[in-house]
Amino acid sequence: MRHITLANLRTGGGRLIAAGIAVMVSVAFITAVLALSQSFNDAMRKQAEADAAGAQLIVGYDSSAGAPPEASSDDPNAHDSATGSDSAGSDSAGSASAELSTKLAKRLGRLDGVESAQLIETTYAQAQAGSAKSALGLSTYPTSRSMTMDAGTTPAGKDQIALYASDAKTLGASAGDRIELDSDLGAMGGDSAGSADTKKDYTVSGVISDGEGYGTAYLTSAGLNRIDAGASPDSIRLTLSGNQAEDPAALTAAQQRVAHAIADTAHGAAVEDEGDKGLAVAGLSVQTNDQLVGQKMESLTGSSNALVSIVLAFAAIAIIVAALVISNTFQVLVASRTRSLALMRAIGATRGQIRAATLAEGLVLGVLGSIAGLLLGWAGAAGLGLAAQKLWLPSFPVPGLPWTALIAGPAVGIVVTVLACIVPARKATRVSPIQALAPLDVPAPDRRFPWVRAILGGLMTAAGLALTLTGALLHSLLPAFGGGVLAFFGVLVLSRVIVPPLIEGCGRLLEKLTGGSPTAGLVARSVRMAPRRAASTTTALLIGVTLVATMVVGAQTLKTTLSTELVQRNAVDAAATPDAAKRAAGDSDIVAARSELAGASAKAALSGEGTDASGTTTVLGATRDSTSAARRGNLVPERGEVLASTSAIPDAEVDEGELEGARITLRAHGESVLLRVRVEQGLPNGTVLADPADIAPLDPTQGNGQTWLRIADDASPSQVSQLATDLQAAHPAAEPDLSGAMQRASYGQIIDIMLTIVLVLLAASVVIAIVGVGNTLSMSVFERTREAALLRAMGMSRGSVGALITIEAVLMGVVALVLGLALGAFFGWAGTSALLDLDGVTVVIGLPWLQLAAIVAAALAAAALASALPARRISRIVPAEGLTR
Amino acid sequence: MTATAHNPAYTAAAQARDLVKTYGAGEAAVRPLNGLSIDIEAARFTAIMGPSGSGKSTLMHVLAGLDVPDSGRVSIGRRDLTSLSEKQLTRVRREHVGFIFQAFNLVPAMTAEENILLPSKLAKKTVDRAFHDRIVELLGLRPRLHHRPFELSGGQQQRVAVARALVTRPDIIFADEPTGNLDSATGTEVLDLLRAAVDEFGQTVVMVTHDVSAAARADRVVLLADGRIAGDLIRPDVQTLSRAMLEVTR
Fold first, then answer.
1. Please, what CATH class does the domain formed by B43-61+84-249 belong to?
2. Which of A337, A428, A566, A728 is most buried when burial is the number of CB atoms within 10 A of its CB?
3. Measured between CA atoms, how close is B152 to chain A, in angstroms?
4. Which residues of B touch A884 (CB under 8 A)?
């Protein structure tokens, strides 16, 4: 059997490479994901350890665990006189609680065996040095933690601050420089907001080495309270005297002492032993260094594991595609070996030996592919790790090869390869010895209609699509997802039934279009000779196209739907005074359209059933033309009508039902008009719309009107916020309303980022599919050597013979595109509809034409590219040699 | 139909001069053509015989423009093939040469009819429908036209190949062991057809074979040995031919 395997491997040689690549890419994917997640965990552990370093016991304020002990105390006669009296009513992390925490820290510091106790508080601020800005976490400098300094010293005075090197770089600040902190984080966008009393100046006392962490700046306790008197207590770090920390029993005893001291301040609250998590008392935790790190890691690992399982789902898709490619390769290999297999049977090989030889070949391929994949994945992870180190987290460790990847990668690779060989191995055993002796005959096509597949696949597809549709209409994710998976596998099962006729049909159509080109005609006819091969190659492409199309259509549908919803809330992207708009938005490249509406400031009085309110409002003369920049087309009032939202009249608290049909009197320049209200939500604040002719007596002018802007759909949130700032600056009283545009831009950005991540994850599957197409085509060349030689002898040109392969590949691409785009569009819509459960929102499919066109171009280019080498090879067949073989 | 037959002896349909062809190098080198020259007369049935390795297949491939000699000249009609590019050779093949092979004569995916029409289609030439129908009738292929190769018997496949070779009226038809895969009755039938192609349609046919009784149906038999002509017989009978072959083989 070993001999057979070796002989097979020798003859298989080059043709096994593609299947090997498929195994390799899948294994590399798994390896990289596991290695990176391991690395990520290591980075987090390092950070957690660094955070806890130096303290032997840590009293933790867990925000979710409830109020600190003093807050729960209502006894004015507590042991510590300060504890009870100050605590009443203080249940938030305000200054009172900060004071209490300070007292608790002092108290713990006086305990036997405790050397020092320091309260660590944290808050956030916007840091600014020159024009550079960065949001930073602020923390009390932990004196027990010794940090490696790149330059300068740790903060000592109340106006000193120490930064991590990476943050210092972002701010362009070095030791001795002055930076400004602003505790008002809301001031991040504009520069006029943020009053002076939220800003404080500090001097950079030193720069901390990057190995320690990032994103946090350290101050003295007094320095922290300067910027935020109400900073929340984070922990109390305790150091112990002597060698207590090295002696587990002494450490535990100290931990108990601390916990009971806290319990005493909370009048004998119970001390609970939470095992690995340490002790809990009165909403605080008392943990040893190890326990704190352990607990932090546990919660982190939980969320990173969830992320890893999502990413591994994409690995699973890659593996399915790889299995298809491998199985395909072996089926064709077995077919091309029929004669030699028959010869082996004739000279005495048993069926079992033939089967074992084929499986062994798969095993060897799986092992080799897995080793290559392991190395490739490791290299890829290391590259990404290095990039993360450079661009994001300087302390990110370069990924090693974790044992999970070392086992899981090859295990999956080998098992999948061997499983994919089972069907081909069974076929190999069916070769009868007689076939060795039979003359080389014209191959007969596989003519059996695959009834089982047709029925099973049809049922799966129909049931799956129905389930998906149900899930989509009921906005329920589970049936939609399950149905989608079922339908997709149904289509894969059906592919053997529907794909070959489709390719043949396309080929015949092409033949007609080219006026009877023999090449196109031959491609169409040849599909019938090897329908299985055509189907499985197309399937590999189909998986890629469907998944990518699902994602892009889903994302676009989500955008369109959210946009529809946003348009309901805000009919206009941005409204500003004409003056401000002219100055700030005149040359903005994100303004897609603008409308100028003349208007007047009017006193509005409402009278209707149970309503009586009045206020000043801006009334605008609206026509179809003057509202063209709005997102909605229904903003044109009829004669005698005024469009108003429930917030149109300041101080008027009316609901929609009351407002609809109410009468409104608008007064300006001593004139007044009486109009009937039609409720239209989403108008700019304090604005109503009326027919220009109706409000003519109020003397509307352009200057008192508004300019409406439509913001380009692809504007980024920062562009929109810049425009808002500019409008504000151009006219301080403009009060530009850009919430519609801002939300659209933010959602768009999030959706685009998610889409990019998903597409990157799908890339592995797509690569495997393309390798698979190339592989199948080169097999096809091998099988058709004699035919190609015959055609060349008959006078078919080299180019035409090569075109046989290229056209075949492109037709497969076309069929995969037709099916994949249709399925993807449906799945994308259904997925979004299932995901979104917004009241009264119909999910309308959004088709991103540009991206869909890119999929078409990419799939056809990939097919053509994959066919390049095989086409070249078949066109090089010398007729005389091909015929005599 | 017999326009070229009135002066057959002096018209060469194909000519070869001083052909040399070597495969491989050093110890393993074989030289199937070793300074060989030959004229193929038009409207005649020429058989090329010789033992295995005598160079008969290589000669046919070179004459037909399927392969290129290392040195020497080949022409079909007045067309010198030696100076032609690959593209031009392909054109010569599809416009002036017909082929019948031992096996795998037909494109598996095409019906008999499509196979017969393939060369005209490749050359983008319209088919003489009347001539096509006459050949199809003559070869008894009418009921088989819409079958694909795997549905045809070996003899039927060869008949389709003959029809394909005849229908474009090429300058010369090459047949490579056309009876090699057939039983003797079917083989005789195919030889009858080739004979008829010469006698009735004035075709030039060159057949490579190692079957003495097949070669005996030819007008002329050229014997090859070691890449050279070892004998040239006009209408030999089976006995003469057998003796000549034995001598060559010895």
1. alpha beta
2. A428
3. 10
4. 57
